[in-house]
Amino acid sequence: MSWVNDAFRRLSGANGDANGLTEHAQTAEPANFIRHIGSLSMTKSADGLFDPKLVLSWLMSHLGAPAALIGLLVPIREAGALLPQLFTAPYIHRMPRRKWAWAFACLGQGAAAALLVLIGLTLTGWAAGMAACFAVALLALSRSVASVSYKDILGKTIAKTRRGAVTGTSASVSATIVVVFALLLMLAPVERFALVIGALAVSALLWGAAFILFSTIDEEADPGKSRGEIFTQMHLLREKPMLRRFIYARGLLTGTALAPPYLIVLGSTAGNGAFEALGASVLASALASFLSSYVWGRLADKSSKTVLALSGFFGAGALVLGVVLDLLGLSSTAWAIPLSLFFLMICYHGVRQGRSTYLVDLAPEDQRTAYTAVANTVIGGILLFSGVIGAAAAVIGPHASLVAFAVLAFFGALVALRLEEVETGVTLFAMEKD
Is there a shared CATH topology between the 21-220 domain and the 230-434 domain? Predict the structure, then answer.
């Protein structure tokens, strides 16, 4: 269809070069490009409406769940989506068409969202908290399957210099949906509980629709090669020095994901009640994604290591800015902490775009699943360790946590500079490789 080809050329900047694709995949690429964007837009929108850091934590507080259980939601979601990948990857890698792994993972996430709607309408207290932890664990396990399979599917169906455009465009589209949700939370004359339950129900529907659309991806079957026993995949860490360096960089950059709650603590401690509101927090994150994701994605197609480095440097600056503004007594103003959070979330989305594109382009075609599983399993452990560092620093105060995460992000950017260039573009930085 002509509109598909036109949209493909406009969004991807396609120049006719289809690196790494078979002849059949090249023919199917324009339609697959649109299907990828549509499916990812729906799942990313669902993620934003579901958001355990903000939306789900607020719901559990509203239902009277214990703080200890509420505090488990984000670690279960983040680490639970990464750690199982070493175990699931060998089975996914044997599948001739891995799109079905991603599609059915959408159904699992949709089921988790539907379960949370039921929990919100029927349970309170400890029962609600325990049931929510189970639902988030189901979502995390499904998400791990989606994560380990998607990069391989993307690499088989979309050319090397257009993959960042897929993820960047879908992130910007989904951010628009989440901005609307945030504005409803802030302005609509509707009870917030009803809006949150409605958002979870919409999330379930979006994941179901993504299952239907993604199942139409034109993915060529391949023999489905096994990488051997589960733990033998870890030999990649010994044999592939650039994969190790990528994991070092990504691990240090996890501070951009773990730091936002500590900025919110600064605002609430200073009496910034307006920013503490759920709607304002969701809005800051969504606007950052909307304004930056497509740009990050296109830049990642030229040099994903540059995206990682820029995100680390500017993320460290955003965290230091938050600390400085608080020390100057400005945290209680309507603009100080929101400004810092906004800049930090821009960098967080840059890290997400850069790490995804770099890993797909780094991995050999027949090892993308294994690379993804090994990297994500190690990062899952690093996330838990980084969370412990943040919690330990929080005993001293949020300033210490934010400075610790800023230092991690800064060194993560330095490591990213020493990554190999895996795209065809020219990096903005040049450093001598080992």
Answer: yes
Instruction: Note the CATH number of domain 21-220.
Output: 1.20.1250.20
Distance CA 94, CA 223 (A): 7
Q: Where are the domains of the chain?
A: 21-220, 230-434
**pLDDT by 10s per residue, the chain, length 434:** 678 888 888 887 766 566 678 888 888 888 999 999 999 999 999 998 988 877 887 888 789 888 667 767 777 887 888 888 777 777 887 888 889 999 999 999 999 999 999 999 999 999 999 999 999 999 999 998 998 888 889 888 988 778 888 888 898 889 889 889 988 888 888 888 999 999 999 999 999 999 999 999 998 887 655 555 555 677 888 889 999 999 999 999 988 887 877 776 676 666 545 444 567 777 877 888 888 888 898 899 889 999 999 999 999 999 999 999 989 988 777 678 778 889 998 999 899 889 988 998 898 877 877 888 788 888 888 877 766 665 566 567 778 888 988 999 999 999 999 999 987 644 445 444 44
Architecture of domain 230-434: Up-down Bundle (1.20)
Task: Say if pTM beats, i.e. exceeds, 0.70.
Answer: yes
- The tokens 């969202």 sit on which residue? 113
Distance separating alpha carbons of residues 344 and 319, to the nearest angstrom: 7
